[in-house]
Automatic annotation (TrEMBL):
Keyword Transferase attributed: yes
Domain of life: Eukaryota
Keywords, ordered alphabetically: Transferase
Domain Alpha 1,4-glycosyltransferase: from-to ranges: 298-421
Gene3D superfamilies according to UniProt: 3.90.550.20
Record-linked PANTHER family: ALPHA 1,4-GLYCOSYLTRANSFERASE FAMILY PROTEIN
SUPFAM superfamilies, sorted: Nucleotide-diphospho-sugar transferases
InterPro entries: A1-4-GlycosylTfrase_dom (IPR007652), GlycoTrfase_DXD_sugar-bd_CS (IPR007577), Nucleotide-diphossugar_trans (IPR029044), Put_A1-4-GlycosylTfrase_plant (IPR044789)
Name listed for the protein in its UniProt record: Putative glycosyltransferase, DXD sugar-binding motif protein
Keyword Ion transport among UniProt keywords: no
Pfam families, per database record: Gb3_synth, Gly_transf_sug
Molecular function (Gene Ontology), one example: transferase activity
Length: 430
């Protein structure tokens, strides 16, 4: 695929974002693969997990890689279920006091309770904790700020999410990772992250303060309607839509890099600035046809991020899959990309999404014949030279096994922190 990049009004020369950075040095692409562990009950379904938008794909094979029907067979889109959230512990964090609170609104409360801490003493401390974590000190200075969110139980935190953090620190040893999560901000969550801290990496989890994060944005009145039960949340899991809003508000309040937990990092993000990635290109014009919000890089209080938040609040629809996520950023950028004053860059699909959701299984497969092997070699070369990260589309890939000789396996072998080890041998849950 010919690398294509568009810089939006006043963003300056963007060629440095792709062409100007050398690919990582790969010393050995055949290291033993990490075996998959089920020590954290990986088979348990998680009603809060962030699912990816079902989109038609656009994919070009790597130059000379040939065509393999096994690798390019289409997949049926995932079935969207009406999720029934489990009953969670009582909380008094939200002003929902009516004894006749409708059942639907009780389910809203359950999601909010799961996302935020019920400890009144911890509320109001979020801002100071975040600033203290990212602040410079004599021994450490964050070169790149990373944010992730985890709105699920820890029972669903698997080896794949752990590998994602490994690749982040493999490429950014002086980076800082803040995981905004109520479940991770716990003794068990700290034990999961402890192996990284013991190696000197800067990582922590902090429970979100949604009221603070939404304050003074259009998310604030939207959230008020939600907590009063005046909002139709629809059938798309509320946790997913809150995750879409939470990532935007984190970037707006603090600035940095937001990444989903199913992203493998291949190169330094230090030269990226105010950037969002295209997921697909138009076959005819070669212009972007859809953007995605799984990886975003923005300065604090960036006007485009404010517009994203505004769009979320004004056009929220809980009955359309992806409406408040990838489709949202696509709608806003399509209106603003030619207007002055926004200064952002649209990166090509290869930057973060080298394969689309319905072909992600190709990254997990080893070669069965020479045609497969040729495609794998070509695609791996393409990813190493052109991609900053690889989104693994967890909704479609979470049950896939990493086969020997696969692209995912080779990337993990070259960007591991705990090489040749399984999760249960690294993390000790007491």
């Amino acid at each position: 695929m010919k690398l294509h990049e568009k810089t939006v009004a006043g963003a300056g020369d963007s060629s440095r974002f792709i062409a100007g950075e050398a690919p990582p040095v790969i010393s050995n692409t055949h290291l033993p693969l990490l075996r998959i562990s089920h020590s954290l009950h990986l088979k348990k379904e998680n009603p809060f997990v962030n699912s990816n938008t079902q989109l038609k794909s656009l994919e070009n094979t790597a130059a000379g890689a040939g065509d393999s029907t096994r690798f390019f067979a289409g997949e049926a889109p995932p079935v969207i279920l009406n999720t029934h959230l489990p009953l969670l512990r009582k909380s008094h964090s939200f002003p929902l006091e009516s004894e006749d609170f409708p059942v639907k609104n009780k389910k809203i409360l359950e999601v909010l309770t799961f996302m935020e801490s019920s400890d009144q003493l911890r509320r109001g401390e979020f801002r100071s904790k975040v600033k203290n974590f990212f602040s410079k000190n004599e021994s450490f200075s964050c070169k790149v700020r990373f944010f992730m969110t985890w709105i699920s139980s820890l029972n669903t935190f698997s080896e794949k999410e752990f590998h994602s953090i490994e690749t982040l620190f493999s490429t950014h040893p002086k980076g800082c990772l803040l995981i905004v999560s109520n479940s991770m901000d716990s003794n068990k969550g700290r034990q999961i992250l402890k192996p990284f801290s013991e190696k000197g990496f800067r990582v922590t989890a902090i429970s979100p303060d949604l009221k603070y994060l939404f304050k003074n944005t259009m998310a604030e009145p939207w959230f008020m309607k939600l907590t009063k039960g005046d909002l139709d949340v629809g059938y798309v899991p509320l946790g997913q839509n809150l995750s879409n809003l939470l990532r935007l508000c984190l970037l707006y309040k603090f600035g940095g890099v937001y990444m989903d937990t199913d992203v493998m990092v291949l190169k330094s993000f230090s030269k990226l600035k105010n950037s969002i990635g295209a997921q697909t290109l138009d076959l005819g014009s070669k212009n972007w046809s859809r953007l995605n919000n799984a990886v975003m890089v923005f300065d604090k209080m960036h006007p485009l991020v404010y517009k994203f938040i505004e769009e979320f609040a004004l056009t929220f629809n809980g009955n359309k899959w992806g409406h408040n996520g990838p489709y949202l950023v696509s709608r806003v950028v399509s209106r603003l990309e030619n207007r002055p004053g926004y200064n952002f860059t649209i990166l090509p699909p290869m930057a973060f999404y080298p394969v689309n959701w319905n072909r992600v299984r190709n990254l997990f497969r080893g070669a069965k014949n020479e045609t497969d092997a040729k495609w794998l070699r070509g695609k791996l070369r393409q990813i190493r030279s052109q991609s900053y990260a690889v989104h693994l589309w967890n909704k479609q890939s979470r049950r896939l096994r990493i086969e020997e000789g696969s692209i995912v396996g080779k990337i993990l072998s070259n960007h591991c922190v705990f090489c040749n080890s399984s999760l249960d041998s690294i993390v000790r849950i007491e």
